[in-house]
From TrEMBL:
This is Methyltransferase domain-containing protein. Gene3D superfamilies: Vaccinia Virus protein VP39. Residues 4-47 form the 23S rRNA (guanine(745)-N(1))-methyltransferase N-terminal domain. Zn(2+) binds at residues 6, 9, 22, 26. InterPro entries: Methyltranfer_dom (IPR025714), RlmA_N (IPR048647), rRNA_m1G-MeTrfase_A_prd (IPR016718), SAM-dependent_MTases_sf (IPR029063).
């Protein structure tokens, strides 16, 4: 099992059912849901970092509808494990929707790998850990991960910021990075309702020193939402909710159905 590192002194943490401790006596309680909070106050950029409770609930409700199921399947299939008993780290895992799919895919292939989920939102990890007891979750920053150098076989990032330096530090020789990013047309129909002018977005492909892209897949399809609760959840789980005017939100409330594109690019990098 891959040890979490103490965020104070970077020594390995020994785990039991109630807490994690290092040899210097730093101790971190395990929450009732099973996750551990390793985010120091000095690493917080706000009082309550990451997704709030409302966003987490909206994302959980929407994803459980199955609209993103093809994306989830493609991401799970993209994950590779280099060594027997290796480790997959899902960085920015939110409520664990894709993390759980990766775990199930590895189990189905009889690959005895460990899966770890990291997110900065304690609300997200409360949901993730409660739903997925066999996966280890920790609250931590993507820019200061509590894992050792060269300890990760596959580093996964789904719609989340990627710290190139942390990828380079943590991924093993011959390891992989899997990144899912919004495609040019992702949620175009939603944006057409919200904004007067909509532009085709530029796809942002992360560049990571020491890694090269070895595989790429696009998952693209249209979906129609006729349940307004799902439309509301979709808006709330995206940054558009906080960037949209009251008038734009009123236009969303006025529609009876939403047809929009799902367009996701999944890139696999290998360490050179």
């Amino acid at each position: 099992m891959t040890d979490f590192l103490c965020p104070v002194c970077q020594n390995p943490l020994q785990e039991d059912h109630t807490r994690l401790t290092c040899r210097n006596g730093h101790s971190f309680d395990r929450a009732a849901e099973g996750y551990v909070n390793l985010l120091l106050a000095t690493d917080k950029r706000s009082k309550v970092p990451g997704d709030n409770k409302q966003m987490v609930q909206a994302r959980h409700s929407f994803l459980q509808s199955g609209v993103y199921a093809p994306v989830r399947k493609a991401i799970a299939e993209a994950v590779r494990v280099v060594t027997a008993g290796g480790t997959v780290l899902d960085c920015g895992c939110s409520e664990g929707y894709y993390t759980a799919a990766v775990f199930s895919e590895l189990q189905a292939k009889n690959i005895g790998a460990e899966v770890i989920g990291i997110d900065i939102s304690k609300f997200a990890l409360k949901r993730a850990a409660k739903d997925n007891r066999r996966i280890r979750f920790a609250v931590a920053s993507a820019y200061r991960l509590p894992v050792a150098d060269r300890s990760i076989d596959t580093f996964l990032s789904v719609f989340a910021p990627v710290s190139a330096s942390e990828v380079f530090r943590t991924v093993k020789e011959n390891g992989h990075l899997v990144v899912a990013v919004p495609g040019a047309m992702h949620l175009y129909g939603l944006k057409k309702v919200l904004y007067d002018e909509v532009f085709i977005r530029e796809v942002k492909i992360p560049a990571v020193d020491g890694f090269g892209i070895v595989d790429e897949k696009t998952v693209s399809y249209e979906t129609e939402l006729t349940d307004h609760r799902l439309i509301d959840d979709l808006l709330l789980m995206t940054p558009y909710y906080y960037k949209s005017s009251p008038e734009a939100k009123a236009r969303i409330q006025a529609i009876s159905a939403l047809q929009t594109e799902i367009d996701v690019r999944i890139l696999t990098y290998a360490r050179k």
